[in-house]
Amino acid sequence: MTRKHLIAGNWKMNETIPEAVVLAQEISNLMERDWLEMVDVAVCPPFVDLKPVKTVFEFDRVDIALGAQNVYWEPAGAFTGEISIPMIKEIGCAYCIVGHSERRNLFGETNEDVNRKARALIEAGVTPIICVGESLAVRDEGAYLDFVCAQVRAAYAGIDGDDALATVVAYEPVWAIGTGRTATPEQAEEVCAAIRATLAELFGAEAADRVRVLYGGSMNEGNAALLLAEADIDGGLIGGAALKAGSFTEIVKAAL
Ligand code: PEP
């Protein structure tokens, strides 16, 4: 089946509100409206930027979705510093990144946390973008497929086939994130195909065929076309290049 590509920009902890408004405006200006009929596009700014970015896109009537970069699974309560799913949903987020390697490695997020977040997001009707990926040490040892597929199994524990359809997976090798060292199309395809095979084991081939698997890790306007041409790569999760409107929109163009 043909899966519609998804290009999602992860702005990480960048852009104050005025800067975010400028970046959103530049993206809107450069984005050809008919591309958005062929490719799904989302940006995931910091929480405080979500509303101002949404206002820009609404004013411009540009169909770019919003995503959050993280969330907590409880709906409300005494969880100082956390943001709930009802909060990001109300503000207009269609997506939420979960299990980004920076959250796993810098903030101690576990596979169990990722699973709880994914399940709570699905229940609320927000699409989790579930990030998985191996470190350089794991890749060098050679067991990276087992490692990544175990992360996938853990993330989907207790999720059924229908709900799995409402998810996106992002394969992001840690050694390629923010390093300028991109996985080759063959390396990325090998793991994305293994992720899809794991989804097929869990939910059946038909469901697995409908779940989008993205690649992330130093994707830019120069390498996007070759990566996106691979059979099991259905889009990109973009970090650094998402902060440059020209680069981000060129990646969207490469995904057409
Ligand atoms: C990311 O952090 O999700 C990412 C892919 O970053 P970069 O594109 O900068 O490697």
UniProtKB/TrEMBL annotation:
Q: Where in the cell is it found?
A: Cytoplasm
SUPFAM superfamilies linked to this entry = Triosephosphate isomerase (TIM)
Tell me the InterPro entries matching this sequence: Aldolase_TIM, TIM_sf, TrioseP_Isoase_bac/euk, Triosephosphate_isomerase, Triosephosphate_isomerase_AS
Name the keywords, alphabetized.
Cytoplasm, Gluconeogenesis, Glycolysis, Isomerase
Q: Which GO terms describe its biological process?
A: gluconeogenesis; glyceraldehyde-3-phosphate biosynthetic process; glycerol catabolic process; glycolytic process
User: What catalytic reaction does the record list?
Assistant: D-glyceraldehyde 3-phosphate = dihydroxyacetone phosphate
Task: Locate the active site.
Answer: 100, 172
Alphabetized GO MF terms:
triose-phosphate isomerase activity
User: Main location per UniProt?
Assistant: cytoplasm
Top-level EC class: isomerase
Instruction: Write out the pathway annotation from the protein's UniProt entry.
Output: Carbohydrate degradation; glycolysis; D-glyceraldehyde 3-phosphate from glycerone phosphate: step 1/1; Carbohydrate biosynthesis; gluconeogenesis
The residues that the entry says bind substrate are 10-12, 178, 218, 239-240
- Please name the Pfam families in this protein's record: TIM
| PROSITE patterns documented for this protein | TIM_1, TIM_2
EC number in record: 5.3.1.1
Does the record carry Isomerase as a key word? Answer: yes
Is Isomerase tagged as a keyword? yes
Give the record's GO CC terms: cytosol
Q: What is this protein for, i.e. what is its function?
A: Involved in the gluconeogenesis. Catalyzes stereospecifically the conversion of dihydroxyacetone phosphate (DHAP) to D-glyceraldehyde-3-phosphate (G3P).
Name the family: Belongs to the triosephosphate isomerase family.
- Indicate the quaternary assembly: Homodimer.
Output this protein's name. Answer: Triosephosphate isomerase
Q: Which organism is it from?
A: Adlercreutzia muris
